Structure to design on (540 residues):
């Protein structure tokens, strides 16, 4: 069959709209307004390092929290009756269909100084606590938005774990802890890896969640990139350089994570 | 005991996911602009919403883009998957890396890179960013998901059916539509559905490629959220939530009916 030709339009499309744009980012990162080659943008990048570190830190914390919350949930879900599973799945997907901006907005109103949570504490004579415009608020926003992306791949792999393997481990004298550590955890590794990827990458690159919940003091790297392209800080050269840095960091991280996984990344797809 | 604990855990997670949405919904009926104190019932914000022409236009744009982008991505991606499947090992690996690039790359980098391309080309060829650029951008990030959904189905496919069809006198084209497409159809539909929903919900990449004046629902929500509190946002969230809920129920209604029948039969059997 001469089917190879079928992918020609796609190759052309990807070359035009994925490869060339990324080449443009690299070109812009190494030029200035006068179209000269320079590494100027990279020397200016020192000011972005604190934001970058903060982005990586908050994304890491969010990923860990998502994992801790999602792991037992996915396990319970995968061991439920089939019709219960379907209903649980639906309830996980439902919020994902609402714009993340709306979901983040709801936390904005909840965490405000006069928001519902503070009013609730007020009933007991506590607070008001400063919750909005803190790092914690950003983490809450990230966990809230990305938790389903951890649950779904975990659930998908756990579904494939044969019940008899777990029973065999129990029969051979494993306690619950060992069953989890020696059987379930290793078998769900592909799901863990895709879950981590699907939470960590969007968390690092976000710019709205941090702006809405973190205020001006918790600018993340995404916010700074956005500011180079819109508004009065316009500087696409610097913006490209930071984007390039972010991309390299993410790709290296993904490369390292995928070393742990010898299967193809298909577990990533829901 | 274990069962009670796991059930409580599941409910806690759902509480976390749905409480903010519930609060949004409740306050969409609130008389005053407060997001923490309910002062009285009104439908005022809903009538406001339907009078907002810009918002209705944005909704229309969102649907148009999502529909077109998912159709183009599905055709492009299915053809590409078939091509990739017939490639040698080296070609396949290059193609897979190309396909994963937009999936793994932070969205903000994809957005920035496409913006650079469109600004560059726009200057060269004299066009503005708008409907066309958003559509191209959406096709670009949707197509990989179609490929990743179709490929596993192609791998499981029984190629002998295609050969048999040809032996029995089908032209290659006819054999393809009669023997290949039906086998990979589940992959195609799930890919198309994924593309459609991702396109509907995309904010980041649209934000960088829409130029001035062309708004989709997410970018519109963004500008509403930036102006901060207006219960109109709550009303909009409620509407979206209800629509999504109804759609999910409609999709699942067949399953639910079948389930009920099966359970009745089980009961009778007992």
């Amino acid at each position: 069959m001469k089917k190879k030709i079928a992918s020609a339009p796609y190759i052309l499309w990807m070359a035009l709209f994925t490869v060339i744009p990324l080449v443009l980012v690299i070109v812009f990162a190494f030029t200035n307004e006068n179209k000269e080659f320079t590494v100027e943008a990279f020397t200016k990048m020192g000011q972005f390092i604190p934001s970058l570190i903060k982005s990586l830190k908050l994304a890491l914390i969010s990923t860990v929290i998502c994992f801790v919350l999602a792991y037992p949930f996915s396990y319970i879900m995968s061991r439920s009756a089939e019709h219960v599973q379907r209903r649980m799945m639906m309830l996980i997907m439902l919020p994902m269909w609402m714009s993340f901006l709306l979901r983040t907005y709801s936390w904005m109103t909840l965490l405000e100084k006069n928001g519902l949570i503070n009013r609730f504490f007020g009933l007991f004579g506590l607070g008001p606590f400063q919750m909005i415009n803190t790092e914690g608020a950003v983490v809450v926003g990230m966990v809230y938005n990305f938790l389903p992306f951890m649950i779904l791949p975990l659930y998908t792999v756990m579904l494939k774990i044969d019940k008899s393997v777990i029973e065999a481990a129990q029969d051979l004298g494993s306690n619950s802890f060992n069953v989890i550590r020696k059987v379930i955890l290793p078998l769900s590794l592909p799901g863990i890896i895709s879950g981590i990827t699907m939470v960590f990458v969007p968390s690092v690159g976000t710019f709205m969640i941090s702006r809405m919940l973190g205020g001006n003091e918790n600018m993340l790297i995404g916010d700074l990139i956005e500011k180079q392209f819109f508004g009065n800080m316009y500087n696409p050269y610097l913006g490209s350089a930071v984007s390039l840095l972010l991309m390299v960091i993410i790709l290296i991280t993904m490369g390292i994570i995928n070393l742990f996984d010898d299967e193809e990344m298909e577990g990533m797809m829901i | 005991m274990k069962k009670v604990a796991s059930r409580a855990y599941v409910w806690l997670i759902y509480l976390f996911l749905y409480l903010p949405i519930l609060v949004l919904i409740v306050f969409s009926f609130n008389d005053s602009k407060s997001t923490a104190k309910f002062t009285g019932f009104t439908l005022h914000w809903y009538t406001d919403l339907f009078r907002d022409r810009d918002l209705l236009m944005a909704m229309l744009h969102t649907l148009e883009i999502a529909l077109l982008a998912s159709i183009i991505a599905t055709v492009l991606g299915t053809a590409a998957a078939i091509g990739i499947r017939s490639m040698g090992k080296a070609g396949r690996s290059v193609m897979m890396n190309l396909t994963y690039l937009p999936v793994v790359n932070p969205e903000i980098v994809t957005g920035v890179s496409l913006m650079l391309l469109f600004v560059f080309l726009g200057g060269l060829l004299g066009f503005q960013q708008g409907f066309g650029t958003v559509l191209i951008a959406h096709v670009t990030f949707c197509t990989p998901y179609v490929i990743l959904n179709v490929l596993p189905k192609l791998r499981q496919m029984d190629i002998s059916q295609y050969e048999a069809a040809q032996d029995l006198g089908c032209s290659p084209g006819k054999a393809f539509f009669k023997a290949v497409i039906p086998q990979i159809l589940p992959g195609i539909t799930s890919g198309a559905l994924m593309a459609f929903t991702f396109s509907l919900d995309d904010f980041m990449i649209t934000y960088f490629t829409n130029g001035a004046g062309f708004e989709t629902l997410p970018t519109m929500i963004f500008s509403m959220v930036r102006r901060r509190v207006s219960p109109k946002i709550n009303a909009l969230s409620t509407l979206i939530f209800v629509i999504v809920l109804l759609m999910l129920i409609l999709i699942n209604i067949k399953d639910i009916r079948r389930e009920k029948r099966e359970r009745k039969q089980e009961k009778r059997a007992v």
